[in-house]
Each structure stands twice: as structure tokens, then as C-alpha cells.
Amino acid sequence: MSEQFATWSKPDDLSFEDWIESRIARFKGRKYDWNALKFQADFDPKYRRAQMRYIGTGATGVADDTNTIPAEHFTFSTMVLPSKCEGPLHVHDDVEEVFFVLKGSIRLFLKDGDHYTETVLGERDVVSVPPGIYRGLLNESEEEALMCVMLGTPKPQIPTYPDDHPLSKVKRNG
To answer: Is 23 a domain residue?
Structure first.
């Protein structure tokens, strides 16, 4: 192992069992955060979605969630996308983003310069989107979609939107 992080070492004041327990994020100890991207839903309800953080805090701008496992190389969360709602086209210039569909299906939009494509991801489908490529998603179904979202760095930059997208002019809450 070439790197060693403080969070990877058992603190002297914890038993091995207690230390391992501190590295487990249990579903029963989590709540869906419908406010993480509320500024988007306030602009247009079609952008309503919720995040549940497990490892790190992701790229939504929430930095004060202490109910997560510390992130050293990536973040991991789940995202609920209600029926007919969407995650707007956005870009992460600093990091790869992975979407793994657990329940339902989503239409994925990808744009890189003049190149554009769409595809549908169903249950247990996964996509890895490289940095610098715009991505967005839409739940066209009547049921909510649930997906895992991973970002390949512990503290991702806040994503940006295309200049011509209305959210590019909207200020975040707080």
C-alpha cells in the first residue's frame, strides 16, 4: 500500500470492533436529503431529487454532513429521481462520475462539444462518464428511479451547467 490516510488507521481509543462500526454507514441511520439540490427544484420542480450520502458528501455542495464514512478516493451516495423529474445537463471538469441504476430506468444525455447522444439505462446498468463531458438524466417512467452515484475524488468541485442552460444563472441556496 503506497498511501496511508489517518482514517485508515484504528484510533488508539477505539476497539477494533468500534472502529469498524464507525466505517459502516447503515441505511437506518440515513435520511434522504431533498434540500441538497433544492435550489434547482425551487427554480423548476422537474429538477426535484434527493441524495443519501454514505461515503463523503458528493458534489451537491453539502459539506457539513458528518454522518458519512470519510472519503479518501471517491464519494458514494444514492439518488432518488422521482417520476418525470430530471437531473439537468451538467459537467464535472475534475472527476469521473458513475451512475448505477438500482431501481427503475433513466434516460441519459451526454454532450461533448458538437457530439451528443442519448441512451436508456435500466436496472443494474452502469455508466462511467469521464471528466469534461456534460451529462444529464431523466426519469420518463411513472415510478421513481433509484441509483448509486460515485465520484472519483473525495471532494469534487461543484458542477457547472452549459452557458445556455437556465440553471447556469441560478444561485445556490445558502
So the answer is: no
CA distances from 115 to 57, 67, 112, 128 (A): 31, 40, 5, 17
| Residue whose grid cell is 464535472 | 92
Domain that holds residue 51: 32-156
Q: Which three cell numbers stand for residue 155?
A: 471532494
Query: At CA 134, angle to CA 157 and CA 63, rounded to 5?
Result: 20
Neighbour order of strands in the sheet with 86-90:
86-90, 134-138, 106-112, 115-121
Chain centre to alpha carbon of residue 63: 13
Specify the pTM.
0.89
pLDDT in tens, 131-172: 999 999 999 999 999 999 999 988 888 888 898 888 888 866
The DSSP output letter for 52 is: E
Amino acid at 157: Q
